[in-house]
What we know:
Helix content of chain A is about 0%, strand content about 50%. Chain A is an all-beta fold. In chain A, a hairpin with a 2-residue loop joins strand 7 and strand 8 (about 70-75). Chain B is an all-beta fold. The N and C termini of chain B lie far apart (about 40 Å). Chain B is built from no helices and eleven strands. The interface of A and B includes residues 1 and 55 of A.
Amino acid sequence: DIQMTQSPSTLSASVGDRVTITCRASQSISSWLAWYQQKAGKAPKLLIYKASSLESGVPSRFSGSGSGTEFTLTISSLQPDDFATYYCQQYNSPWTFGQGTKVEIK
Amino acid sequence: EVQLLESGGGLIQPGGSLRLSCAASGFTFSSYAMSWVRQAPGKGLEWVSAISGSGGTTYYADSVKGRFTISRDNSKNTLYLQMNSLRAEDTAVYYCAKDSGYCSSTSCYFYFDFWGQGTLVTVSS
């Protein structure tokens, strides 16, 4: 199975900061990558699919890039509502997730 | 509006069985593959199982293969997960998710565009 490794595991940032989360795949997954946001006690929410396509209704401060084995999720200006845990997921079956990156208040 | 509502979770002894249900609305249920994804307490997300829109093709994670069975009733817009021989490590919140993507002749490319609120399964004596 394809392994997904996110970094960092935890990120401390302030409102207004530019934030970047990295996800690496153990083998090439082309652009078959999605990003999710999860808040405590809630279901995950889709942010990005196909590495860089923004899901409908998701603020444009979120963006994704990359292909092959290295991918990034960028939040251009961190907002109070963005403090959460973020997961990448490769979707070339079987489907696997990264271990998550918690974005916390600095 | 897409809605997914899971039910059936609870406390069960090791070795026991449980059936989860997920009632779907707001989309043409039979047109979409569906999945179960779980999250152990304080841990990350783990895909568990998927089923095609027709129900004719199923997929399982190695960790549940042979113990869990996914199925669907398109006449009732409901997804199921039958869980047998439960272990402590199966303790998790179980989410149902609507799949978006497609299958080629060799692989399926699904991400999860809508999720239910989850149902907690606790396996403990």
